[in-house]
Every structure is written in structure tokens, then in C-alpha cells.
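pinging the channel bc i need a second pair of eyes. not urgent but kinda urgent?? the chain im working w is below, pasted from the shared doc
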Amino acid sequence: MPVPSEEPAPLTRPDRVEDVDDAEERAAALRSDSAPLGTPGRPLNRRSPFVIGMAGAAGVAVTALMVELIIVARDVLVLIGLALFIAIGLEPAVEWLVRRRLPRWAAVSVVVLALLGAFGGFLAVAIPQLVTQATTFVTQVPAYLQDLQASNTVYTDLDARFHITESLTQLAGGGALEVFNGLLGAGAIVLDVLSSMLIVIVLFAYFLGDFPRIRRGLHRAVPNSRRPRFILISDEVFAKVGAYVLGIMVCALIAGASSLVWMLAWGIPYSLLLAIMVTLLDVVPVVGTSLAGIVVTFVALAESTAAGLATAVFFVVYRIIEDYVLVPRIVGRAVKVPALLTIVALLLGGVLLGIIGAIVAVPVAAAILLVVKEVVVPRLDST
């Protein structure tokens, strides 16, 4: 007779209270003086589909957020980049003072105060005359064009083909003076310019004061195995930018001073206004001095043909001297960028960031060229 089989005992779940107590005991066993919160467990499996999917989605979200942030904060980022660019450029001056046994805070204060003092003194002296000469220049454009047309056959032929006098006269008579005066008197524009200048000055001072800490922080962000090589390359990049900024400022001052002396000697009107224009445009590589020379030459032609031709020759000679004597000696070979790459960098910088982009395009191109030469090319050659 078959013996009835015993029914299996029902499965019972462990008591939740005992489960929690057991976890607390194991947590207490993990605690130690060296690791009060225990040691980390095994990391998540990076090959898990869940981890791969979450990482990909997070990467897309972060990238989209960064792009949106850059677009929204574009103007502020340009000011921050400009302040950092100026700070890197003036860092060699601070280092020179530090090597003369001056504390860094004192060296930074000397450089910042000297720059602000020179800029403030220049504005205090130049702005009244600049506004007066600019206003008079705008009102006298039609008369200068008529005098130029009457005294210069070359300009007469050009005007007959392209109607230069008519176009510029309509521009000057159709409200250019009112627009100019309106811009000078617009409180919103003045406030915007002053606030932007204040932001750049404050950020520039902070960047210059904390530059060693910023440099160390940048180096700490690189893996230890690659850190020495990164330090050498980044220091070389900083040296290139610094040499370029200081050199281009000195060249611009020389261009403005020499053109001012030339215009005063020939009695060319609005010499201060035009000299400031030459100084500002000379900061833009390749095309700046040429554009300034064309404008000054046209103004000189309105006075006399001899003054116009002499001024044109002066700017051609100065451009040659600047390219082959001043820039190699002042900037040196620290920023050595091929001519084609310089033109491409200027075009891209001007399109992306305007005049600021054109100014910083050459040192940025030099830095990229250095990284490609020292990092990318050797790696490609080894594969």
C-alpha cells in the first residue's frame, strides 16, 4: 500500500527585522578608524547595457546643455576670454618684477595700476579733443571729398566710375552726424561699454593675481602620467601668448606715435583722431595697418596731392619696417605662424568673435599649431 508523501513545507521569507539587524551588524564591522564609512564596493559593470545607455544619454544631455550655455552666455564668455588673454599677456611683466624680489601682490598691483593709470590718463586727455575732431570730421566729409575731386585726377576718375563722393555725401548729410551724436549721448550704450570695461578690468586683475593658482589647477586636471609633458606644452603656449600681447601692444604704440608725428609735420588735420585709429587698427594683424594707411592717405589727399602721396609712401615703408624689423625683434620668433594659416585664422576669428576674434586669432593659431606639432604629429607618425 503506497505511503502518502509528505507535503513540502511552505517557503517562508526571512523576517525583515532580522534582515535589517544583520545589515547593521555587517555595517558596524566595516567601520574602522581609517575608513569610518567603510571601503567602496565593486564598481558598476561598465559593459552593462543599462550603464552604457545611461552614460550615452547623460553625455548627449550634458553636451546639449553646454552648447546652449555657450550660446546664451556668449557675450560674457568673450569678456572672460579677453580678460584671461590680457592677463596671460601681462604675466611676463609680473614675473619680471617678481624676479626683482618684489612680492607677487606688489608686482600685480604695480602692473594693474600702471595700466589703469596710462589708460585713464589717455582718456582724460584724448576724449575732449577726440570728440571735437570726430564731430568736425564727420561734418567736413563732403567738403573734403569735393576738394579731393577738384585737385586729384585719379580720384576724379574713380569717382566717375563708382560715385564715391555722392554716396559718402548722402551718408554724411543723411543723418550720420545725428547718429554719431546719438551714439555718444545714448546712456544705454555708454553704460553697456562701461560695464563691459569694468568686468574685463576686474577679471583681468583677479586672473593676474591668481595666475599661479590657475596654472596649478589646470595642471592638476591632467592625469599624473601625462602631467610633466602637459606642463611643458602649456608653459610654451603661455609664453607665446604673452610675447604676442606685449609685442603687439608695443608695435601699436610705435605705429600710433610715428603716424602722429608724421601728420603733425605735414599739417594733416585731425591728427590725434587718426593716430588713435592707427594705433587701434595696428593691433589687428596683416590688414590693420593697411586699412589705417588708406584712411589717412585719403585725408591727406584732401589737403594736397603731395601730402597724400608722401603719406601713402610713409605707410608702405612703415609696413615693411614693421613686418621685417619691429615684429621680429619685439615679438621675436615665439609666435611663428605661416602666412596662410594667419589669414585663415583672421577670417575665422573675425567671423566668430568680431574684432576681438581677429586680435586673438594669431596666438590661438600658434597654440593650436604647437599642440598639433608636439602631440598629434608624433602620435600619427608612431602608428
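so Residues 74-221 form one domain. and Residues 104-151 form the longest helix (48 residues). — does that match what u expected or am i reading it wrong
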